[in-house]
């Protein structure tokens, strides 16, 4: 392979030598260089000529100055290789560049162009920026809107460059982008090498930063990408017309933002650029992209590194805000200016190397060393958010964000947030400096293990000590934490969770008595009697850092308040068997109820704000508890800050949730917060008036006892009873076909041979009425159709049926129907029924017998049943067969149908791997001998299953009942169910027909509705839900939910959560008025009626604002006001919010938790997993464009 490197050069004497040297340094030597001297007036030609004299691969071609495009076209004309690389005279490539890219080309002959990552290099040689994060899914669609790689990062076929006309000389800039776009329009295959192998030299006077020329040329290229391009004679059919014209405004405005950044970098004002795109509007303009474009582009004109933004911001902030406000007005993108500004602030702080504290816009950045006292933080007046970098002994842990309320972030809140975010890593650091140093590493024949005294903490560890400690923490930290917390350094983990541990101790004590001389027995502390306490009226507090008491009980159940360092974690009911609650039972109950909150509290109260060296964790907590006790602070009602103005007591809810997180709230929202708390019956405590405005605190350790819930008021979801057939029911097959076409490789020689053999076993004459069961995607159907008068093809999967219908579109005698072999009747009488490769999935042997009787009943007298199935070793362990986890194979299937009157076997073809059998409906009962044909295996099995074949027979996999459980929960997000609506909002509207099809699938697949609380409990226990759980949600609360959605939900047995915009109930969706379609929302009368019928309602904020664009006071008002209104109107506690537009971040979630929300639903796509934050649960959006296949595939994301 040979590559022609085309190098246009104009007055390049200062850089051309380095460029040519980078070529000569290539590990790949099969290149030639054509340097086109484009009318240089310096010594460029002389320098190149010297190189050419010494290296015959270098040639020089001279021409009058015509511009870079014309120079490159000249180079193409003189190129002798089939592959081209365009290298500018001031750039260079790394030594492995050509070798890596040509190796990729050689590996795949279909590649038309291969490109690498690239890097911008500052004038001082330092790395400025690495480009390219990944290959675009659709190269033409990407290049229609922007360029994605540097010109010298790509090797391309010469023929394809010539075919699209080379470079456009009319473009002074963007000429490479224009070329790549034309090449991509042909459908060319681009490949990617991600490493940055091309180097791009930054220059202050570069044409790529001459933004007015760049802007106009770029707009021309973008417009060409959204229309037909006559310069491309052979476009791909998919791209011949370009991208849709409606996408053009977004592309132009995005490009505008890049050029605005360049203007800012030149210390200019880009407002005039808006005049060039004055007619373009795009409400969906992405603020993240806008921020990234401005951030990256503004650095280029002066070749600044990313850290240079700290210098730019003070002089650009005002102009940036003016530009963003004008861009928001023109684009019609809601709250765009605030969104982009906030993201810019974060980008600047992320890359800043300046000393903190530092304020950028509305974000105040600080550094907190957690081994020093953690103090209240006073922020500048403009600050709304605190970005806190957290360190422990100089080692960075990460950053967190908190709201600034009334100019402050209290240490009370900050320490809690640090513990909640970083407690596991802080514990690791603390134990490494304390407990871990005392552990013993043992190495023996069994491997490497870690011991604490005589107790093995972990085994099978890496032998290398650094690797050992790198992995040990996650293995041992929890057990070490429990040992330290409870003062039991010799206990294994099982002891802590055994409520009857005294029995173990008794056995150990007896063993010790037998083995020790008289008078020599020492009683371990853990075996001694616990202190005694009597439960009085109300809850009883127990301090974790003290010896737990045995509690004499009179009332059942007992209310226990566990405290850590004197700070309450919550109220937990404990059931008592008898009159005494043993200390160990208290310990087990505390650990099960509090879980990881014990770690958060222990780190917050025992480690933060103190030096690492010194007392143990338990000693630190005991000292903290003693200090609080000496000050006579009420354990059950601590106001947390002596100068707090108002304290909101703990919200009802589980301990391991946002209920346990401290918060400061804006004083301006006090009225809304008090109203929400009063309606919910939650106490509000007025404290001192020391600070103005007096701080408003949410204090989770301010304990109160809510009224006990009415027994049975919270129903448990009914889990459908699933048989073994449901494991391989509709969900299994819909998912299989939705996620991969041709899952069983029907077109393989193995399957095609089997099809041919099956057809040969049919009667010679055409058969009038034929039923093909389990037709899948129709690969056999299309071959069977010519042999049938009328063919009904059935399958359990609608996705498969849709594909089969497309495949058989030319046959008018073929119809399709959905049918479940286990549950549905066979529709009618037939002369021939075929059912192949599916009967393993009907369930057990009795279900197979039931199905055989259905087949016999559906056959006309004299009719035939044909079946083909694999031989499984479960039938015949001493013969060749597949080792699949099914209860039976072809042999048992054949025996079952042969023993089902009036069916009789008339013909059978046997190979080592499968059998094809023909049965006939014989009402006369004549005894005949079936024709048996045995053949050697005609074709090898497909590679995907070849490893499952036991050619010499063997023990089969044990077949057992497979339990259906939910480890990843789909939370579906709908907006509307309606037959008609505007095209602009079609994405958010599902037709009633499509919705019913989706619900029918969910019902048939065994899904059932669960609650968020049930999922929370499963997450805490890390125990899957039984069956196939699902949550169906609707945002906004449209009237058509009552008209169309709810009747179908009831019909198919599902419930739903509807999120209401509290201040807009009974009004319209005015937030979407820009799209020209205002729709009526449910009123309170209909909402209460739906609630009585089982619909759950929750918050979608008060006015449907983009929450991240609001200041803390506005955020809290949206959450608190909505909660107050909904609780007042619905008469029930509200603890769930769906963020409008899915717009959320750490500050929003922190404040929503403080407002009383336990669950927060986003628009982040995916299934919910055990590790998800309850205030940031993902959802699966169901759009109006989703067909059933796409819907099913989304359930398996």
Number of E-state strands? 51
Poorly predicted runs are: 519-523, 634-642, 708-714
How many helices in DSSP terms? Answer: 35
Beta-strand percentage range: 15-25%
Distance between the termini: 43 Å
Going by CATH, the architecture of the domain at 3-241 would be: Alpha-Beta Complex
CATH C-level name of the domain at 3-241: Alpha Beta
- Morphology call: globular
Largest sheet: 9 strands, mixed
Mean pLDDT figure:
90
CATH homology superfamily name of the domain at 3-241: Spore Coat Polysaccharide Biosynthesis Protein SpsA, Chain A
Class by helix and strand content? alpha/beta
Radius of gyration using CA atoms only: 36 Å
Query: Helix content range of the residues, please?
Result: 25-40%
CATH fold-level assignment of the domain at 3-241? Spore Coat Polysaccharide Biosynthesis Protein SpsA, Chain A
Description:
The structure is a single chain. With 1197 residues, the protein is α/β, with parallel strands linked by helices. Among the domains are: 3-241, Alpha-Beta Complex (Spore Coat Polysaccharide Biosynthesis Protein SpsA, Chain A), CATH 3.90.550; 244-352, no CATH class; 355-409, no CATH class; 746-950, 3-Layer(aba) Sandwich (Rossmann fold); 969-1194, TIM Barrel. The chain contains 35 helices and 51 strands. Strands 1, 2, 3, 4, 5, 6, 7, 8 and 9 form a 9-stranded mixed sheet that branches. An 8-stranded mixed sheet has the order 32-31-30-33-34-37-36-38, with helices on both faces. The longest helix is centred in the first third of the chain and has 23 residues, at 309-331. The radius of gyration is 36 Å and the shape is globular. The chain starts with a strand and ends with a helix. Residues 519-523, 634-642 and 708-714 have low confidence and may be disordered.
């Amino acid at each position: 392979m040979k590559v022609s490197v085309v190098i246009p050069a104009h007055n390049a004497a200062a850089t051309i030598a380095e460029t040519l040297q980078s070529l000569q340094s290539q590990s790949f030597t099969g290149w030639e260089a054509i340097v086109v001297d484009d009318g240089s007036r310096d010594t460029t030609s002389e320098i190149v000529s010297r190189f050419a004299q010494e290296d015959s691969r270098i040639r020089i071609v001279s021409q009058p100055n015509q511009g870079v495009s014309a120079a490159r076209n000249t180079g193409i004309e003189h190129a002798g290789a089939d592959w081209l690389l365009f290298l500018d005279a001031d750039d260079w490539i790394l030594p492995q560049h050509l070798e890596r890219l040509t190796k990729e080309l050689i590996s795949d002959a279909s590649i038309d162009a291969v490109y690498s990552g690239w890097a911008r290099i500052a004038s001082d040689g330092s790395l400025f920026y690495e480009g390219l994060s990944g290959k675009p899914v659709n190269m033409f669609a990407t290049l229609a809107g922007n360029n994605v790689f540097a010109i010298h990062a790509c090797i391309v076929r010469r023929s394809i460059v010539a075919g699209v006309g080379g470079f456009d000389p009319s473009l002074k800039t963007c000429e490479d982008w224009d070329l790549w776009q034309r090449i991509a329009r042909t459908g060319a295959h681009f490949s990617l090498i991600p490493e940055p192998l091309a180097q791009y030299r930054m220059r202050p006077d570069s044409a790529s930063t001459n933004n007015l020329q760049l802007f106009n040329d770029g707009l021309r290229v973008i417009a060409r990408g959204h229309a037909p391009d006559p310069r491309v004679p052979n476009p791909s059919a998919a791209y011949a017309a370009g991208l849709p014209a409606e996408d053009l405004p977004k592309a132009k405005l995005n490009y505008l933002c890049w050029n605005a950044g360049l203007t800012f970098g030149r210390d200019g004002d880009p407002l005039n650029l808006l005049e060039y795109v004055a007619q373009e509007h795009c409400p969906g303009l992405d603020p993240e992209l806008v921020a990234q474009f401005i951030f990256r582009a503004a650095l280029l004109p002066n070749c600044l590194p990313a850290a240079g933004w700290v210098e730019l911001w003070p002089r650009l902030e005002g102009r940036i805000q003016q530009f963003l406000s004008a861009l928001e007005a023109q684009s019609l993108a809601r709250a765009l200016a605030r969104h982009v500004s906030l993201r810019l602030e974060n980008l600047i702080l992320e890359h800043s190397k300046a000393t903190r504290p530092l304020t950028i816009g509305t974000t105040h950045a600080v550094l907190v060393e957690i081994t020093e006292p953690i103090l209240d933080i006073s922020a500048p007046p403009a600050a709304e958010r605190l970005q806190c970098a957290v360190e422990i002994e100089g080692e960075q842990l990460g950053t967190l964000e908190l709201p600034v309320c009334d100019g402050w972030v209290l240490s009370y809140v900050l320490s809690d947030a640090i513990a909640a975010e970083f407690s596991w890593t802080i514990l690791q650091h603390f134990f490494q400096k304390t407990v871990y140093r005392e552990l013993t590493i043992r190495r023996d024949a069994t491997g490497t293990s870690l011991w604490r005294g005589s107790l093995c903490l972990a085994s099978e560890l890496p032998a290398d000590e650094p690797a050992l400690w790198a992995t040990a923490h996650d293995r041992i930290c929890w057990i070490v934490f429990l040992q330290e917390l409870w003062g039991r350094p010799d206990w294994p983990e099982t002891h802590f969770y055994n409520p009857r541990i005294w029995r173990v101790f008794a056995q150990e004590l007896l063993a010790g008595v037998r083995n020790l001389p008289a008078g020599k027995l020492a009683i371990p502390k853990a075996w001694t009697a616990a202190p005694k306490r009597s439960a009085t009226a109300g809850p009883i507090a127990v301090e974790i850092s003290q010896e737990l008491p045995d509690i004499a009980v009179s009332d059942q159940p007992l209310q226990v308040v566990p405290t850590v360092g004197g700070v309450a974690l919550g109220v937990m009911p404990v059931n008592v068997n008898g009159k005494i609650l043993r200390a160990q039972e208290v310990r087990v109950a505390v650990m099960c109820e509090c879980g990881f909150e014990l770690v958060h509290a222990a780190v917050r109260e025992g480690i933060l704000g103190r030096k690492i060296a010194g007392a143990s964790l338990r000693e630190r907590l005991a000292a903290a508890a003693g200090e609080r006790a000496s000050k006579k602070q009420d354990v059950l009602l601590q106001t947390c800050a002596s100068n707090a103005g108002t304290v909101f007591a703990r919200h009802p809810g589980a301990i391991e949730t946002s209920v346990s997180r401290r918060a400061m709230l804006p004083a301006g929202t006090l009225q809304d917060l008090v109203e929400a708390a009063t309606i919910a019956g939650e106490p509000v405590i007025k404290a001192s008036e020391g600070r103005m405005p007096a701080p408003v605190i949410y204090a989770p350790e301010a304990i109160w006892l809510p009224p006990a819930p009415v027994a049975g008021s919270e129903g448990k979801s009914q889990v459908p009873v699933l048989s073994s057939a449901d494991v391989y029911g509709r969900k299994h097959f819909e998912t299989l076909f939705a996620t991969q076409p041709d899952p069983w490789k029907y077109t393989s020689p193995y399957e095609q041979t089997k099809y041919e053999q099956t057809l040969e076993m049919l009667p010679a004459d055409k058969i009038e009425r034929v039923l093909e069961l389990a037709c899948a995607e129709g690969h056999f159907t299309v071959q069977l159709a010519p042999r049938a008068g009328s063919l009904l093809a059935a399958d359990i999967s609608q996705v498969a049926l849709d594909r089969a219908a497309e495949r058989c579109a030319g046959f008018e005698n073929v119809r399709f129907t959905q049918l479940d072999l286990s549950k549905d009747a066979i529709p009618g009488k037939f002369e021939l029924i075929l059912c192949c490769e599916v009967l393993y999935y009907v369930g057990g042997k009795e279900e197979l017998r039931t199905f055989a009787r259905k087949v016999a009943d559906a056959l006309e007298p004299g009719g035939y049943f044909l079946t083909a199935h694999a031989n499984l070793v479960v039938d015949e362990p001493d013969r060749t067969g597949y080792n699949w986890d099914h209860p039976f194979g072809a042999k048992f299937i054949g025996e079952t149908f042969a023993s089902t009157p009036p069916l009789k076997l008339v013909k059978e073809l046997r190979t080592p791997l499968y059998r094809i059998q023909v049965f006939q409906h014989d009402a006369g009962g004549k005894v005949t001998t079936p024709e048996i044909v045995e053949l050697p295996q005609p074709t090898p099995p497909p590679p995907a299953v070849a490893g499952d074949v036991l050619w010499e027979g063997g023990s089969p996999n044990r077949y057992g009942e497979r339990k259906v459980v939910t480890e990843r929960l789909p939370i579906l997000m709908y907006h509307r169910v309606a037959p008609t609506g505007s095209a602009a909002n079609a994405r958010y509207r599902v037709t009633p027909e499509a919705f019913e099809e989706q619900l029918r699938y969910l019902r048939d697949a065994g899904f059932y509705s669960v609650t968020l609380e049930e999922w929370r409990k499963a997450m805490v226990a890390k125990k899957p839900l039984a069956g196939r759980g699902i949550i169906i949600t609707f945002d906004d609360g449209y009237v058509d939910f009552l008209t169309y959605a709810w009747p179908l939900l009831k019909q198919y047995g599902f419930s739903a959560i509807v999120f209401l915009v509290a201040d807009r109930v009974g009004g319209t969706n005015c937030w979407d008025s820009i799209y020209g379609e205002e729709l009526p929302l449910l009123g309170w009368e209909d909402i209460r009626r739906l609630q009585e019928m089982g619909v759950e309602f929750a918050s979608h904020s008060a006015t449907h604002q983009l929450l991240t664009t609001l200041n803390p006071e506005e955020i809290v008002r949206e959450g608190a006001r909505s909660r107050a209104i909904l609780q007042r109107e619905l008469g029930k506690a509200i603890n769930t919010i769906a963020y409008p537009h899915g717009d959320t971040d750490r500050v929003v979630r922190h404040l929503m938790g403080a407002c009383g929300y336990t669950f927060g639903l986003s628009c982040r796509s995916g299934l919910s997993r055990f590790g998800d934050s309850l205030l940031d649960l993902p959802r699966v959006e169901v759009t109006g464009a989703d067909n059933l296949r796409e819907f099913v595939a989304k359930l398996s994301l």
